[in-house]
């Protein structure tokens, strides 16, 4: 199958569930964080970045999540609203939980790392009863970001959201999004990732993330093709494995495979590549484009974002991507 079909007659194109946090990106770049004195604040969280990316591409977008009852939580909600994202599914924690912080260290364009403060974060306190079934029922796509499975009650909220998606014919995109600091142990990660991946129509991850997901599935050396075949045995129609500056590869349930090239980039920081790639790729599929064209669009979005200081703020608008693709060709 070259193209994915999405339900018609839905009021939303895309709803994401998971982490809403704050990125604090070092202003003094090309040095270790020990020498950084100032940061710029952006909305962050992989699913938030992807939702912002989808909204910038004119997709009708909503979010299901939980924010802290503080200035950071209010900043996040306002930013989502300012970017045209439906926030009725975003609830405010009343237990004193805090907003997750992601300090981005930019030692060099190719050597970036994230220091994450994730203790007692509001996003992992989303309750199953706070998942708005109507938002999922009314959307063509539900994006599940893997880290939301890291702790209860967020874990159960996500598993319920998956059941709603299956019930209402909403396509599920599972972005594995492995962030080790949120998990207790790798075994737990694999178990809950499996629960989500088995119910997903499109699975996106890096090779390392799929290895984490498949650690109990035998064959220590797992090829991308083996990975894809495994998930076609469940619900998947498309499996995408991302390989950084080597590009990406996607497999279709029809046995097709597609190599994704990269676009040239004046890399400031590598973070944000995955989220922008996902937004562009999903956008392309939702336009009815084939897998290869959707991958190319995603790669263009990624090059734009890694050439910028932020992730969310830098998520490109449609005309920006089109201009970029008219100037540059995949390398
Ligand atoms: N240095 C680069 N130059 C151009 N394109 C890149 C580069 N790095 C990544 N990309 C593009 O972005 C896509 C996703 O990047 P990557 O494989 O690093 O995902 P990721 O690890 O999820 O990203 P992130 O760092 O945001 O978590 C790649 O498949 C490629 O198309
Ligand atoms: O997903 C996170 O918690 C970190 C993000 O906010 C950050 O922008 C990033 O790493 C994007 O890939």
From TrEMBL:
InterPro entries listed in its UniProt record: Carboh/pur_kinase_PfkB_CS, DKG_kinase_firmi, Myo_inos_IolC, Myo_inos_IolC-like_sf, PfkB_Carbo_kinase, PfkB_dom, Ribokinase-like
Chain segments annotated as coiled-coil in the UniProt record: none
Record's protein name: 5-dehydro-2-deoxygluconokinase
Family listed: Belongs to the carbohydrate kinase PfkB family.
Associated pathway: Polyol metabolism; myo-inositol degradation into acetyl-CoA; acetyl-CoA from myo-inositol: step 5/7
Catalysed reaction equations from the record: 5-dehydro-2-deoxy-D-gluconate + ATP = 6-phospho-5-dehydro-2-deoxy-D-gluconate + ADP + H(+)
A GO MF label: 5-dehydro-2-deoxygluconokinase activity
Biological function: Catalyzes the phosphorylation of 5-dehydro-2-deoxy-D-gluconate (2-deoxy-5-keto-D-gluconate or DKG) to 6-phospho-5-dehydro-2-deoxy-D-gluconate (DKGP).
Cross-referenced HAMAP family: IolC
GO biological process entries: inositol catabolic process
Domain (Carbohydrate kinase PfkB): residue spans on this chain: 14-317
Keyword set, alphabetical order: ATP-binding, Kinase, Nucleotide-binding, Transferase
Top enzyme class: transferase
Annotated organism of origin: Cohnella lupini
Listed PROSITE patterns: PFKB_KINASES_2
The EC number(s) this enzyme carries: 2.7.1.92
């Amino acid at each position: 199958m070259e193209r994915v079909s999405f339900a018609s007659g839905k009021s939303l194109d895309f709803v994401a569930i998971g982490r809403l946090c704050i990125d604090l990106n070092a202003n003094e770049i090309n040095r270790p964080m020990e020498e950084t004195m100032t940061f710029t604040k952006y909305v962050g969280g992989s699913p938030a970045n992807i939702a912002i990316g989808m909204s910038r591409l004119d997709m009708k977008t909503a979010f299901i999540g939980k924010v802290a009852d503080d200035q950071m939580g209010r900043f996040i909600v306002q930013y989502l609203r300012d970017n045209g994202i439906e926030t009725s599914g975003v609830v405010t924690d009343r237990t004193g939980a805090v907003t997750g912080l992601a300090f981005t260290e930019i030692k060099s364009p190719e050597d970036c790392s994230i220091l994450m403060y994730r203790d007692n974060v509001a996003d992992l306190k989303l309750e199953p009863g706070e998942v708005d079934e109507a938002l999922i029922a009314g959307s063509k796509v539900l994006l599940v970001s893997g880290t939301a499975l890291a702790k209860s009650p967020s874990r159960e909220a996500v598993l319920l959201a998956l059941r709603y998606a299956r019930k209402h014919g909403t396509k599920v995109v599972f972005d594995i999004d492995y962030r080790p600091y949120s998990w207790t142990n790798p075994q737990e990660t694999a178990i809950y990732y499996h629960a989500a991946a088995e119910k997903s129509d499109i699975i996106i991850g890096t090779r390392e993330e799929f290895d984490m997901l498949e650690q109990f599935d035998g064959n220590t050396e797992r090829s991308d093709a083996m990975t894809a075949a495994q998930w076609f045995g469940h619900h998947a129609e498309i499996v995408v494995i991302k390989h950084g500056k080597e590009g990406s590869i996607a497999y279709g349930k029809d046995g097709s495979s597609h190599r994704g090239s990269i676009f040239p980039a004046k890399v400031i920081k590598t973070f944000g590549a995955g989220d922008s790639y996902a937004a562009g790729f999903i956008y392309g599929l939702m336009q009815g484009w084939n897998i290869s064209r959707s991958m190319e669009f995603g790669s263009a979005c990624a090059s734009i974002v890694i050439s910028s200081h932020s992730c969310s703020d830098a998520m490109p608008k449609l005309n920006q991507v089109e201009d970029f693709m008219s100037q540059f060709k995949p390398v």
